Amino acid sequence: MPDVVEQIRNVCALGALQSVAAIERAIPIIHAGPGCGQKLWSALSSGNGFQGSGYAGGHSVPCSNSTENEIVFGGEERLRETIENSLKVMDGDLFVVLTGCTADIVGDDTGDVVRGFREQGAPIVHVETGGFKGNNYFGQELLWESIIDQFLEPADAVEPGLVNVWSVLPYQDPFWAATLETIGNLLKLIGLKPNLIYGHGQGIKSVRSIPSAQFNLLLNPWLGLKTVQHLERRFGIPFYQYPALPVGATETGRFLRGVAAYAGIDEALVEAAIAREESRYYYYMERAADLFFETRFKPGHFITIADSGFALGLSRFLVNDLGLIPEAQFVTDKVPDQHRERIEAEFQDEVAGIPSPVIFTSDGGAIREVIQGLKFRERPLILGSTWDKVITRELQGYPLSVSLPVSDRLVLNRSYAGYDGGLTLAEDIYTVILNSFQ
Amino acid sequence: MAINTKIAQAPIRELRLDAITGYSGSVHDLAARTAPGCCLSNRERSFAQTSSCSSGCAQTLLSGIVDAAVVNHAPLGCLGDSLYQNIGYHYGQFHRNWPYSNVSMISTNMGESDTVFGGAERLKDGIREAWRRFKPKAIFVTTSCASGIIGDDVQGVIDELKDEIPTPVVPVHCEGFRSRVWATGFDAAFHAILTRIVKPPEQKSKELVNIINFRGSARAYITDLFARVGLKPVFVVPFATVGELERISEAAASLTICGTLGSYLGTALEEEYGVPYVKSTPPHGFAGMDAWLRGLGQAVGKEREIEALIVEEKRAVQDDLAQVRQKLAGATAVIGMGPGFSLSYIRVLEELGIKVLYAASWHYDQHYDHGSQPAITTELATEHQDIPFGIGEQQNFEIANLLKELKPDLYFSRHPGSSVWAAKQGIVTIPVMDEYTAFGYRGLVNFGWRIADALANRRFVNNLAQRVRLPYQQWWFEQNPYHFLSQEEAA
Ligand code: SF4
């Protein structure tokens, strides 16, 4: 099928501006046409869980709003005055200049303009994220390359136990904020000190302390690999990778054991923590058992349509914890070719040993055509985006929006990660099912 | 002044309507200096926040045509707002009791190599896929900054596919960098519809009236209202079919809910096909609705019936209006909206007894396509006391500065991403998201009660303002709100 996209599930490289917005008191400055900021904010934030403008996002992002003049004569002067005045007007700790298509096609020397301000002491970096260069995952990797190279300084000493967390892509995953808090709490359970970088209570000091971490935790099958490798090269920080976002008891236990073994944490301490958490988890899960086993509305096979790390976590939870049967897994985050085989294998690595076909695509039309070709004997459960509710309804299935765009739900501090996340997901799934007939 | 449907694209508003995005003054000053024959030059900003572009407006209209498809020839990001358009689409379907479907939009997903070698093949793929997947009655190809700068020949690609795709494929020139005025995108969409979809009238209708609007939430009410005088509304462009659009040239008149929106289509239909375009103030509140309905009555020769309707409708809400006016008496407000609403809402709020301290407009068309100044400007200048007025492309930092200085009880805004900032300042904020807010007599009263409720319980904004910080330095609040506007060019 041609490489065109119906029903977008990710955006262009300039989408990295939302990762800047996810860092407390960091301020994106975009050197782009007048519509980029609005479109990307629409897709990543207001159309995706209604995540809001935040501190300096949405329509408050400084922008050169480039027009014909900057295309014909170059936009460097316009950028220079935009930055100069941003530094006067906006109250921030870190400024990140990101470029859009106009600036990068025309070939403005953004780096040169920004360097001038940095040399005068402004906390400012730049990254060339012209939309045609790639998607927002690519933009995310460029962003961190820039922050590492242009802003971070080597640490005086390693802080034992400090772990930088590289995981969900902020705003692309509408649950990112609470998911990061959850991962942080899981790490604390086994005595580690999480450095979450994004979200509440983090900010510039978290960014500055990245080089002093004992190790990087990469909780994703591929996104962020370049970043942790770059940090390894630049500051000698090693990394530990775990591919799936842990959802529910089985997977969270596996994750904790994995990271603890890597960090050399006493096994007994880890097992005690897991036992405590599992006991609480099953206190609640036991309640759900009555409904699961006595309802006439147990879903048939399930489908996930989400970014790879999240899809893996959801799928493993549904198979390993809830005992459901997968039908197809759509991976929508444009996984680079070299990672695909490994990710496919991860999908087969269910504790229950149940295989599931994996389809890499972010084209809604392709997804719809595959689903229309499947045969369901009972109403399927489809964990995807709001786009996918239309086909789910046609199939009389149960839709739950969990991946971009989530425009039929408000997302505040909800997360499906960890022990509580598994319970929350079970609640949400059965809320959809029970709501479908009453 | 006439609209030229022979050219490939609509000229941008800055050129066609002398539209400006930078001004600080007052309504009377604006009216005098933009009177026929005069022209105000734009004041540029040396600092700005991200605004919006014409492709968003074009796609908002086109994505809503129920049996058409949109192919956006761009990298993926430019279709970012399709999510929001899909929400709007569902909202409109909800109001019509239609089953939910998604907007039919495809991104050609341009990449780096396309910017070097050209994106023609991709565009062909996009058009072919749109045809294969949706079998639409028309395909609109929207352009982007990337496709525009590299100079892809959209019409050439379309011509090559002529024998292959048995449906009209229409280019829509809406590159974001061409204009600061996002409403230029409406014109781009209308130009495409006018030149390639609308057919010459076969049989003129005496009862059909085009209503140029967005989501059409007041559809049922208007249909009922018009039925009482023997007329039938046709709501365009969203939620119309291509077949309905083909025949809008046959209507007895065109009305619009917003002069910014309707100018191009309404004027062109009048000039090309003799469909009278009602150029009155928009139907917001009592005075607005009076003018709108009377304009319609005159256009279709039903003055007497319309007068009776006005009397009846007004009588039905008179007591309610008096009550709510009492509740709102003494409240003060600032307005920040597009020009089709901003000026008109000065009058709406005053009809409710609210005192307007300041109005800001996201741009301003010094004249409409039919050649005259917007009717509301003229009327406010003659019948109304002067009010301070500013123009900016939704520059939140300017509004924040104004609000801090003026401390109004209320802020009224229209456009996503603006009202929340006033709420963070502790000001009771009323977003006017639906275009039929304060629509006519009943709408005004309902709107009044909505404001009264918001004023009655200010807890949420108060709580918010105590806890959140605005992203501005103190220095900024010590400056004039229009500090970054360039000096006016000497005449
Ligand atoms: S693709 Fe280019 S023009 Fe479109 S939103 Fe992204 S950076 Fe802006």
UniProtKB/TrEMBL annotation, chain A:
The organism's place on the tree of life at top rank = Bacteria
Give all residue intervals belonging to the Nitrogenase/oxidoreductase component domain. Answer: 13-433
Signal peptide range: none
Which PANTHER family does the protein's record reference? LIGHT-INDEPENDENT PROTOCHLOROPHYLLIDE REDUCTASE SUBUNIT B
The protein's name is Hydrogenase
Q: Which organism is it from?
A: Geomonas subterranea
UniProtKB/TrEMBL annotation, chain B:
Q: What is this protein called?
A: Nitrogenase
Q: Which domain of life is it from?
A: Bacteria
Ranges for domain Nitrogenase/oxidoreductase component come to: 53-455
